[in-house]
Amino acid sequence: MHITDEARLREIVGEPAAVVRDKVRQTLSDIDRAWLAASPVVFLATSDDHGRVDVSPKGDPAGKVVHIVDDTRIAIPERPGNRRVDGYLNILRNPHAGTIFVVPGRNDTLRVNGAARIVDDADYFDALAVTGKRPILAVEIDVDEVFYHCSKAFLRADLWKPESWTPRTLPSVAAITRMVMPELDVPLVDDRETDEQYRKYLY
């Protein structure tokens, strides 16, 4: 049965505790800055003017995945990729964006939401250079909301326990593409070979 109103939703899930309800802030604290500096990966969520949603992972060495412009603005660099730029096209049509910053080994995460824009140069691009290469673009986000998300999801997933990982039980992405879209005639290569090729062109 579909849930169509908040009253029914609350009947099932209940009300959040006050500390959870009121934890949202509008500026970055010193500990937020430390968390962002320790994070090597962020998930950037955007949607277009019709509400179609995209979530894209962004990864770099810790300290390079995000730049803190000031207490109310962050910037996420763009590196060479597949050129689909789904999230960037969304931002051009709808500036609202959400992020989740992950620190390896930590089960809680930091969420930063706000209004995004794309920039092609800024003073901080030099600080975001990796192996001497500056980002090609960056997404600046003016902070509307910043808060920590509890650890339950990652705990349920046993995310950081290697014994729970089964990466080689699934076929490579190339093999999957050949199965579901044979008309593309994708060369059949192992993911490990693909990763080695990607490593040559990360920056």
In terms of structural class, how would the helical and strand content be classed? alpha+beta
Q: Quick check: average pLDDT?
A: 94
CATH superfamily of the largest domain: Electron Transport, Fmn-binding Protein, Chain A
Instruction: Provide the number of structural domains.
Output: 2
CATH fold name of the largest domain:
Pnp Oxidase, Chain A
Shape: globular
Assembly form of the protein: single chain
- Our Rg estimate from Cα atoms comes to 19 Å
Largest beta sheet, briefly? 7 strands, antiparallel
Order of helices and strands: HHHEEEEHEEEHHH
Given this structure, which CATH class of the largest domain is correct? Mainly Beta
Strand order of the largest sheet: 2-1-5-6-7-4-3
Number of strands: 7
How much of the polypeptide forms β-strand, as a percent range?
25-35%
Domain Pyridoxamine 5'-phosphate oxidase N-terminal: 33-150
InterPro entries: Pyridox_Oxase_FMN-dep, Pyridox_Oxase_N, Split_barrel_FMN-bd
Protein name: Pyridoxamine 5'-phosphate oxidase
Pfam families: PNPOx_N
Walk me through this protein's architecture.
- The longest helix is centred in the first third of the chain and has 9 residues, at 30-38.
- The protein folds into two domains: 24-156, Pnp Oxidase, Chain A (Roll); 166-199, no CATH class.
- The model has no long low-confidence stretch (mean pLDDT 94).
- The radius of gyration is 19 Å and the shape is globular.
- With 203 residues, it is of the alpha+beta class.
- It has helices at residues 6-13, 18-21, 30-38, 86-93, 152-157, 173-180, 191-199, and strands spanning 41-47, 53-59, 67-70, 73-78, 96-102, 109-119, 137-149.
- It has a seven-stranded antiparallel sheet with strand order 2-1-5-6-7-4-3, covered by helices on one side.
- A hairpin with a 6-residue loop joins strand 5 (96-102) and strand 6 (109-119).
- It contains seven helices and seven strands.
- InterPro entries: Pyridox_Oxase_FMN-dep (IPR024029), Pyridox_Oxase_N (IPR011576), Split_barrel_FMN-bd (IPR012349).
- Residues 33-150 form the Pyridoxamine 5'-phosphate oxidase N-terminal domain.
- This is Pyridoxamine 5'-phosphate oxidase.
